[in-house]
Amino acid sequence: MKQLLVVFFSFVSAFCFSAEVPSWLTRPENEYPTSHFIRAIGEGASLKQAQNSALSAISLYFDAKTEVLTQTLKESKSVLEGAVSSFSTNQSYSQISNISSTADFFCVNFSESYYSEKTGRYSVLAYINKKDASKIYRDRISYLMSTIYSCQQYAKDEKETFSASQALHKAIKLSELTRKYIDAEMTIVPSDVGNYQSELAAINTITEMYTNLKKQMTFSVVMTKNDVRYGGVFTTISSILSERGYSYSLANSNYKIEMDISSVEEHAPAGEFVRPSITILVVNNAGNGVYTYSKNFSKIGGKTLEQAYSRSSSKISADLKENFLAE
What is the model's pTM? Predict the structure, then answer.
């Protein structure tokens, strides 16, 4: 039995990392010539650290910041999930929606890792096949632009200003990702620099359209139940409007945000609990609802009822920052 365990361990070790110094570490140009690949070697105390180090070096090649790209991917994925039912190219959607990291975005592959017994550190090579990556980028750009054009056309045809602005907001979020793909594709194939003039011009036009629409809208916020314990939520809504670039006024608004928050209280030996729910309705001057958002939250507790309500308010505010007007 002990011999079997030794054999098994040896097999797993060989599978996880190379025992001998690999050629990609000593002669990377022979294995991954720069004429066909973008490559970078990373090192770290763990395999994950080594991969992250190599990936950071790859990102520098594209002049991309990982945290900025990750946020763009997150926001774009949210928009695509909301729009997928409107578009038929589900295969392209799936391809993009599965991108959740810098490695996925840049089509990065990793070599077999190498562990040095002498230094106690891992090494790994990250590489991008230029030809394959360029094709993938072009496919993704094409799909994203088709979605952007659909949002733009919807905004042109839509008579309700707020609904049109929401469509353009989606288009702008996707435009941010599209720009990054265009930059990446032109970095890999510099000769393609003139191939995306129409796409970039369209993106600029959408930004101008969105800015002009926002100037036509002014919002006011009212709470149907004036509960001072949720005053922080009122402030959160106002800050979201400000961050979006919308005008906010207590009077002379053409859109009213009606916010209703209710809570069910529970008293227990372990403490005090509230179970909040929120419903938000955006209404235009004609009295028509143009946007709704609602959510029921799980039970939130504290030592006192005041503490439970404070935590409840913070929970609702955090959710609104993430989701209100994001669809």
Answer: 0.75
